[in-house]
Amino acid sequence: MKNENIIQYIYGIADNALILGQRLSELCGHGPSLETDIALTNMALDLLGQTRSYYQYAAQLSGDGKTEDDIAFLRIERQYKNVLLVEQPNRHFGYVIARQFFYDVFHLFLLQELQHSKDEILSAIAKKAIKEVSYHQRFSSDWIKRLGDGTKESHQKIQEAVDDLWGFTDELFHMTEDDLLAFNSGIGVDLSKIKDAYYQKIKEVLEEATITPPETKWFQKGGKQGIHSEHMGYLLADLQYMQRTYPNMKW
Amino acid sequence: MSCFCEDGNLIFDYLHKRMTIELKQHIDPRLVPILEKISDPEIPVLSIMDMGVVRSARIVDNVVQVKITPTYSGCPAMDVIGDDIIAAFKKENRQATVNLVLSPAWTTDWITPRGRKALEKYGIAAPLDEEADKEALLGNKKIVKCPQCTSTNTKMISQFGSTACKALFKCDDCLEPFDYFKCLK
Predict the structure, then answer these.
(1) Residues B91 and B24 in one domain
(2) Rounded to 10 degrees, what is the CA torsion of A212, A213, A218, A220?
(3) With an 8 Å Cβ cutoff, is A52 touching chain B?
(4) What is the pLDDT of residues B3-56, one digit of tens each?
(5) Which of A134, A169, B20, B79 has the most CB atoms around its CB within 10 Å?
(6) Looking at the structure, do residues B102 and B18 belong to the same domain, yes or no?
């Protein structure tokens, strides 16, 4: 497998962490309560930390003097390979929790497979991240239950968010060409293998939370090919502003 | 690429921006007194040695080479710790380099017994073992001891605390809030 393909494979994983981390960072100082504010920004920090490890490795593989900052801040929209789910905006707390829950469950399954990668660096990053993401999943699952089984209003709002975001979940399992290449060379994860377990876990938690799993069969895709939703441009403008205005700033 | 070797450390070399696998190295006893004086910037009572973040330290060609590991991937204290190490050795007229070990991943088991005592004295409840930690964080059992009054009549306020490694608790007896250092395995 060529380095260029491994780099693209890494982007497919790391860009999710970067973009979700950015969305969560937007809530720093704006969370609905002090505890949730701290939790969400802690999770953002974990995700950005993981992103750095992935990008440092990708930069090393590229061998053209690129740095983690170039990768994070200086690509154009089409070059980001994150799924549409993670770029969806923080409409209200229900959306923040539903998005997090849908991603955390996937993220943990993904890392549990990635830790067996033949690529020792990806395996090491995954092993470290598993510990962090287990906490994320516990947090978002608990909140799904609290909101779903809470008041009439909280139930209605979390159901609304689950209904709206459900259509983005199938893309998590879409295998791009680079995903297939990575899987065939023992580096990447076979996403179809974790799909059943994913939906089973999601449905278990939703059921406990008295939330009805949507029956929608139509799913939206595109992010993994770089075709993003209308929200992505605004997100990137925020993310990249400092680096483009003051080039070579360091994290 | 070769298979991941359990005995190897995955190192991120800042200077060359490279990740490499190296065999475990020991901490040179001559360097310990200096390393023990450097404290964790977020928990000043704890030295980086007691925290278990120093994974190796040796002298090569008269240069001190230190390898540290992050508690959490995004831990912002790592940069400060790295700078502090370089500054501490500079005071001793020694040149030092610091690299980051990503694997094996840090665990709370690496906090020394002395470190656990220092945490408690500072007002942070030390991590329980994995099973007990789960019970405590899920709210099933009241087992986290309040570092102020030692009561176990405590409950979790927030799973995430002032830093990524801690959860926020409160004591229902002395009514003081306190941090609990989460178990990380």
Answers:
(1) yes
(2) 110
(3) yes
(4) 333 456 777 777 777 777 666 668 899 999 999 999 998 888 899 999 999 999
(5) A169
(6) yes
